[in-house]
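Bug #77: duplicate submission created two jobs. Keeping one. Sequence:
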Amino acid sequence: MHHPSWQILQPDAPAPIRERQLAINRRHFFGRSATGIGTAALASLLGNDASIAAEAGLATLAQHVAPKAKRVIYLFQNGGPTHCDLFDYKPRLHALHGTPVPEEYIGGKRFSTMTGEANGKLMLEPVEPFRQHGQSGAWVSAFMPHTARIADELCFIKSMHTDAVNHAPAISFLLSGAQIPGRPTMGAWLNYGLGSPSEELPGFVAMTSVSKGTSCGQIFYDFYWGSGFLPSRFQGVKFRGSKDPVLYLKDPAGMSRTLRRGLLDDLAALNARKFAQMGDPEIETRIAQYEMAYRMQTSVPELTDFSDEPDHVLDLYGPQVREPGTFAYNCLMARRLAERGVRFIQCMHAGWDQHNSLTTELYTQCRDTDQPSAGLVQDLKMRGLLDDTLVIWGGEFGRTPFIQGELTNRPRWGRDHHPYAFTVWLTGGGVRPGISYGVSDDLGFNVAQDPVHVHDFQATLLHLLGIDHERLTYRFQGRYFRLTDVHGALVDGILA
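Kept job's structure:
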């Protein structure tokens, strides 16, 4: 395995010295907070242009190939959207509706405890009809009319598969490469590997939402945007679903900005002395966070002020766009964050766990997410941002082609978790538009052609941002870790 020169350490050094070397490598030296001499000198040479400074001082360190994307907006749909009802049309499901699942498709597969053994489960046809759309002829369900209209902009991967069968492990696996929490997530790896072009906002922002009235009890765990064993300065900053997305940014009553600046300067000096003694990267994190919070006092109010958005743009995102905490609001926030240099924006929307609500809550879920997702793509394209912005839509797995519940009780139809074949879509950022890649079998049960494992998906995402997934590594507990663990292959077929 090859490692960038900035990661080569003295192999025989005692453990404490090794940890010191890990804490002060070339990246950390140049990537310090505003008090660091590397950033200060570089910024002065470049006329204090944060974007240029970041690109010159950080971004080139981990880029191994020419990047097609500069940033990622991940529209993560927690709960497992049902590929059988949304994007992966299988006519044979109509013919087998109400009959037992064919034994040859099961093959000893593991399902959630709610299904247990799949033997004898009845097949369930799509709830809503499918039609082909655009010049690409992409099959999209009536559940997603707005997404259908931009079908020629999208690349559908219909052969995704994963190792996990339950929500939290599957989400962790897709976002961090491991089912057990504790590894850095995609955004943290990119924040570490490429740095942040923005001085005014974090390099990695996470936002969450859930459809109103849903029975979904999923929890948004902090490790979904965590930095794992990377220094915590690289973790995602969670924006709350309110007009005040980040707490404690305002100056305390009676404290002027001048006094606040002086206090932070003195605190940074004390922390810098402590860092010189201890070499603990978390001290660097503290310095950087204080500085970022100070700058966000002016950048965040401007970010959340939609008064400069014309009505025709707001209308793209749908009626909920003016309501903080909704998926539509977060999608517009994502575009505004992308414009301002944020590298990785993770919008997580829960509620796709339709074990017994395909005929009720699935309609609400699609209504709340379909138009904002399509509107975001259209908005990015109008502004010339789509070419270098990678947009991803998808969940941690799909749903079973067979029913969960009683076929005679239509209001309670459901589908269980299904890791063996599911669909995601991507657009922009170097992805081929207007194609469907990979094929599931005639029931949407297993991958039949061009399988894309989670690690392959991660490797391809990094490649689009100019990173060889085998070379972006971090040494922890005696070995080099990476997002794709020891797996992953580039999915060439989706690259433009």
